[in-house]
């Protein structure tokens, strides 16, 4: 079904219609300096398409929460844990509710982490819930920056990965990305390059004008026109709107943002006693102490700097006594192992990202008051891979298992768990795990990805795969001198069944 979204008026061509079905397949990039009308354009698009498609708005300034009053969008306050946001996003796709993720009040790094968790939940939803969804991200340069900023590398990687998944791989999952940015130069190229529809607004910097002209297939000398565009005027190009660059004027909207452009307001009449109002404090002000900052110390002289360099290093101070009671390392490791087991007892744990699991792990450690510094992220990934296998005590103490652990350290963190599950099956003579079991440990619903991973182990010379006459799979480990019993690769997830029977 073709649905034409009325975006306003096209110069000399009547109404400017946007093919919604084509937009869902080809995505949209909006660019324009502050005050060019980007938010107004997004609001027009959201209002006109609200009756036809589910929507999600990633709103860093809280401007789009007013959609809830008119169109019934659910406002999700981002002041939650990342695990909560991921679960909420999964339920949003399941029940097909339009939402506004309100990031107002969070600093930049918190906004990036919250948006990454929410977008990850939308992306990782079950295949049964892959309904069409319009995902609008305002100020996209915050979540997919072209260069590292003041935020941590981990937060940047999480946010950039979520935005890349949205624009590059989201189409098959029903997610159509609509991203708006003030400057193309600040937006990661691999994110911007996936859009096939463009709406370019007022731009002043030469580098941004040149990039906008290149994206629209215009000559460089035509790029000057972007400086002259009025507020709400854009140049459109793409299969969903026009096959040639088309100037359009965005129409009116039914809702308004909570913030607005500054307007000149006449100053009040000057009072006769202005000096008394300014220089004479009120009674309540006198009760508050005045805090004066001390003047900065003078810079040290050259002789003092040389003396400091020549001075011997002071002896290291003794570490302060821990506020926590002393605990044996073995007991502490057991408490951490108990937390890992509790964390993995959740049936959805296999499909949550490592970053979300790590945040949940830290919270559980604080609740249990485990003393000392919690394991770092890399150490947590290693513990996670081993905890997902959880071998019996006799196997865990055997030389074969120790050798399997050493071999797994040559692999990346995300595949160690799959390798160790296969090694455990070989050492115990158990049937080879099915593709569904390996896929869950790998953190995916795709059985074909699990098969490719096992084949990759064979390419590296770690295992040898063969099929018996019943087409059951046997995985042999030459370094361990062991192999699994035949197992059906198309069988069910046996670990889930065993856990359900135990419960």
TrEMBL record:
Q: Which SUPFAM superfamilies does the UniProt record give?
A: P-loop containing nucleoside triphosphate hydrolases
Which parts of the sequence belong to the AAA+ ATPase domain?
24-285
> Does ATP-binding show up as a keyword for this record?
yes
Looking up InterPro entries in the UniProt record yields: AAA+_ATPase (IPR003593), ATPase_Atu1862_pred (IPR014588), HerA-like (IPR008571), HerA_central (IPR002789), P-loop_NTPase (IPR027417)
List, in alphabetical order, the Gene Ontology terms for molecular function in this entry.
helicase activity
Q: Which UniProt keywords apply?
A: ATP-binding, Helicase, Hydrolase, Nucleotide-binding
- Tell me which domain of life the UniProt entry assigns to the organism this sequence originates from: Bacteria
- Chain segments carrying region Disordered: 480-503
* PANTHER family for the chain: HELICASE MJ1565-RELATED
Q: What is this protein called?
A: Helicase HerA domain-containing protein
- Species, as recorded: Devosia albogilva
């Amino acid at each position: 079904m073709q649905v034409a979204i009325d975006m306003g008026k096209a110069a000399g061509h009547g109404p400017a219609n946007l093919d919604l079905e084509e937009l869902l397949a080809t995505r949209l990039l909006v660019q324009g300096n502050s005050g060019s009308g980007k938010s107004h354009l997004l609001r027009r698009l959201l209002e006109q398409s609200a009756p036809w498609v589910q929507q999600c708005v990633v709103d860093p300034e809280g401007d789009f929460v007013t959609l809830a009053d008119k169109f019934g969008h659910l406002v999700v306050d981002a002041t939650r844990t990342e695990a909560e946001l991921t679960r909420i996003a999964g339920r949003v796709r399941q029940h097909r509710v339009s939402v506004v993720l309100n990031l107002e009040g969070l600093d930049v790094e918190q906004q990036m982490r919250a948006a990454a968790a929410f977008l990850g939940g939308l992306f990782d939803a079950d295949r049964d819930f892959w309904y069409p969804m319009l995902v609008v991200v305002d100020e996209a340069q915050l979540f997919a920056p072209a260069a590292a900023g003041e935020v941590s590398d981990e937060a940047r990687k999480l946010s950039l990965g979520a935005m890349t998944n949205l624009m590059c791989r989201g189409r098959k999952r029903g997610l159509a990305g609509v991203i708006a940015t003030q400057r193309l130069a600040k937006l990661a190229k691999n994110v911007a390059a996936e859009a096939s529809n463009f709406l370019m607004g007022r731009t002043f910097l030469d580098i941004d004008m040149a990039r906008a002209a290149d994206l629209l297939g215009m000559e460089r000398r035509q790029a000057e026109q972007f400086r002259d565009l009025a507020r709400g005027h854009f140049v459109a190009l793409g299969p969903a709107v026009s096959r040639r660059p088309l100037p359009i004027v965005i129409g009116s909207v039914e809702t308004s943002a909570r913030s607005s452009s500054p307007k000149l307001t006449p100053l009040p009449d000057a009072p006769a006693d202005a000096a008394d109002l300014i220089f004479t404090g009120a009674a309540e002000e006198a009760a508050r102490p005045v805090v004066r900052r001390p003047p900065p110390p003078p810079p040290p002289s050259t002789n003092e700097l040389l003396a400091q360099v020549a001075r011997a290093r002071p002896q290291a101070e003794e570490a302060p006594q821990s506020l926590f009671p002393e605990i044996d390392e073995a007991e502490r490791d057991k408490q951490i192992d108990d937390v890992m087991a509790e964390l993995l007892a959740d049936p959805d744990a296999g499909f949550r990202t490592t970053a979300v699991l790590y945040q949940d792990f830290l919270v559980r450690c604080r609740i249990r008051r485990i003393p000392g510094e919690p394991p770092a992220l890399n150490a947590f990934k290693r513990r996670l891979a081993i905890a997902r296998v959880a071998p019996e005590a006799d196997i865990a103490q055997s030389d074969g298992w120790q050798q399997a652990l050493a071999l797994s350290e040559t692999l990346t963190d995300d595949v160690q768990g799959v390798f160790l599950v296969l090694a455990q099956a070989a050492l115990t003579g158990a049937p080879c795990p099915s593709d569904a079991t390996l896929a869950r440990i790998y953190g995916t619903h795709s059985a074909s990805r699990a098969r490719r991973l096992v084949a990759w182990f064979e390419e590296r010379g770690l295992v040898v795969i063969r099929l018996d006459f019943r087409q059951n799979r046997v995985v042999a480990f030459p370094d361990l001198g062991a192999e699994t019993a035949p197992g059906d690769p198309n069988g069910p997830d046996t670990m889930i069944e065993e856990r359900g029977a135990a419960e």
